[in-house]
Specification:
39% helix; single chain; binds pyridoxal-5'-phosphate
Amino acid sequence: MEIKQKKRPETIETAVYGSDRMLVEAPSDKIPQEPTAPEIAYRLVKDETYPQTQPHLNFATFVTTYMDEYATKLMNDAININYIDETEYPRIAKMCGKCINIVANLWNTPEKNPWKTGALAIGSSEACMLGGVAAWLRWKEKRKAAGKPFDKPNFVISSAFQVVWEKFAQLWQIEMRVVPLTSEKTTLDPQDALKLCDENTICVVPILGVTWTGLNDDVKGLNDALETYNAKTGYDIPIHVDAASGGFILPFLNPEEEWDFRLKWVLSISTSGHKFGLVYPGLGWVVWKDKKYLPGTMSFSVNYLGADITQVGLNFSRPAAQVLGQYYQFIRLGFKGYRDIQYNSMEVTRYAHERIGKMAPFVNYSPEVVNPLFIWSLKPEYDKKANWTLFDLQAKLQENGWMVPAYTLPDNLENIVVMRIVCRQGVSRDMIDMLLADIETAIDELEKLEYPTPTRLAQQRSQKINHKIFARTGHTGHVKQSVICKGTDCK
Ligand SMILES: *Cc1c(COP(=O)(O)O)cnc(C)c1O
């Protein structure tokens, strides 16, 4: 049916929902010829995204969904500042340098320079890339100097890598050597990692806060194994720690655990300021153990306000607001404040982990909770007779606004469907109780099903669950989920 418009011009008096604009299709191909009154444009955009913008109920994401009002005001006030304009805003560059110093010291940097060597990034993805590129260039320069070929670099990582490492491998054409995880070996096994190393290995990448499972790779074990290996082979293969989550958890909750620059072979570490650094999205940090580990070709020095700050990055223009947000959080919360928040997140996670573990259909993937997230699956014996899968549970929970992702584990474990909860700041005991009650209600309903759901049928049809099967069943929700799981949220 054609909707009839009255062809009235928009004036200051036009009511938002009485305007012609509200009767025409929203643009999806071409820019509209005419302007639209701001209140009307605002409502159009707002209404289009409204039902999907409840970040607080999003248990899939690691990324900050709550900051206090002062932080929000500071960041909103700085929304029009481009970080790269350092000549115009030198104090922001200096503030960034202070944040890098604070992060470097949280990770026990031995660097003596007053300005520690690190970089601001848009997230862990950019930070990981910078750490990886630095390792590659250091290796390349050394190989060149020794007159050896430098055309076949590789790096070693577990199969539970975050997608950024696949991008790193593809974009820089560096071979990714993957140590498969198994049901017995749920984190990177140092000896298995060494088996994949050779003279062309630029670095090994352990992960703290593995996105798929919430577990931590054993960085100390890897460091010690590399010590022996490097002494024996004469190589000097270093470690880049992808501490996207763990970088802001361990320093506060387990300061005595050695995973950082206290270890000899750890030369660089990256983290997401917007995950447990407690800043809204758009912030990552990478730090090198010393200036000498950052290849000169990647960095340039700037001298502002008497501060000699090193500048590194893939992006040029970028928002400055996140730097203000991070510095505010450091001052506002202090060490104790961060510790209290991370402690609460861990306690709420442990509580949820225990309650989930007691529900009849479920089994936790790991008895341990080492980061504020965990995964669980259906018990194998339950899985055999159930008419539903965790994908159905995900859809049921979504009816109440909860986003709790179900996904399949990486290669070798891809038959295991798991569900994950991340308890960020903002997830209280009360909220978890509400979620757990909804999970119990959903299970009751799912157990009443007389026939298998389409996702269960698909699972029965093929031992091997893969995303293509879900695509064929027409369950686009699940297909979408598998796509999300390739992104930063699930994987
Ligand atoms: C989230 C995450 C990334 C990517 O981080 P962004 O900050 O989203 O770019 C990389 N590695 C791990 C282990 C992660 O958890």
